[in-house]
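To the structural biology subgroup,

Please find below the input and predicted structure for CehA/McbA family metallohydrolase, which we are adding to the shared reference set this quarter. The sequence is reproduced verbatim from the submission form. If anyone notices a discrepancy with their own records, reply to this email rather than editing the shared folder directly, so we keep one authoritative version.
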Amino acid sequence: MSTSTHRLRLGLEDLLEQPLRTVPVEIAPGADSLEVRLRYDRRQATVDLGCEGPAGWRGWSGGARDHFVIAAGTATPGYLPGPLEPGLWHVQLGLHQLPLEPVDIHVEVLTPATTPVPAEPDPPPAAATPRASARDLPAPAGLRWYAGDFHAHSTHSDGEQSLSELATLATGNGLDFLAVTEHNTISHLPHLPRVGARHDITLLPGQEVTTPTGHANAIGDIGWVDFRRRPDHWLEQVEADGGILSINHPLQEDHAWQHRMRRLPPALELWHVTWFLEPTATAPWTLLSRWPEGTILLGGSDYHHPRHGYVPGTPVTWVAAEDRSAEALLEGVRAGRTAITRLPIPQAPALVRLDDQLVAVDADAAVLRDVAGRSRLLHGDRVVIDDRWQGPYRLEAPDGTLLAISP
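Predicted structure (tokenized):
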């Protein structure tokens, strides 16, 4: 057995100089498992944890864990199992928050690992809830509007529920699909087809590329996106591999988007769950002047745990697609066939495109507004809006509460 302990003493000045630090670890030939333990005063600091091997990235748990195990057949959620290549490995430390006065950070590395990886809890029973797509919103010929959420987390990053538990919540809320977007890791991707099939929901592969100055979702089966590189590279890689890059919660408190890019991504998470904290806010609309016409608009609950008081599908992103396979849904997103509603419940006001028409459904007494500032009080359960209006559009309740969005 081999054990090594590394002590770092770091403060705010070190964070500002180099926010991502590495601890080199030599893995001898024949080692079958690796265990890393991180220790520091959490009352004073927040340090993210990750790992890279000689053959590439092996995982990231951010500030959610202070310990991980990697072995040939198993690994802590957030990390990729597999053989340990001999040679130089690097424990990754993200200095998220440090005080002015330096604090001690201890990294202990053990080979082989001495702590077993806990087994996944038994999956909950699959829900038999009717899906929101049964509402059959008006759609172009050959297509149907499917209800989903493009932003959620499990125990593979900083969420508190397993993939099965997450899928149960999503189906229980009537969703047809859910994008699982873990921070800086893709350890969840191999499990998505099995879990999705068990719960009869399409689980879209995703990664939330996470940096101190902004987050973006890379949606699609595209491999790992290196958050240490510039966002322009993220966009190039994602598009080359057939995925979609979307800027997340661009106005959210200390997670707002601050990166500059040569070209903005095609998609924008315009309606993030934080909009529910101020449902009459208009600040997000100011973003649209920066994004090109035709930007794909998405919504995301950013679900982490039930204590937040909401479930996946808050808000709902609808995609008009041929079916609810991952390929068809992503094709619908690329084509800009999206709409967002406050909730997936039947009779929730909706605003959808039907070929060249914009149709408001179950929106009697709602106020329609367009990006040019025009507004109109709607009358009736189905209202067709003529093409003189200019999108994106939104529906508001009489008190200004946001109800629905359409490109």
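Summary notes: The chain has a mean pLDDT of 95. Helices lie at 12-17, 163-172, 192-199, 231-240, 326-334.

Regards,
Lab coordination
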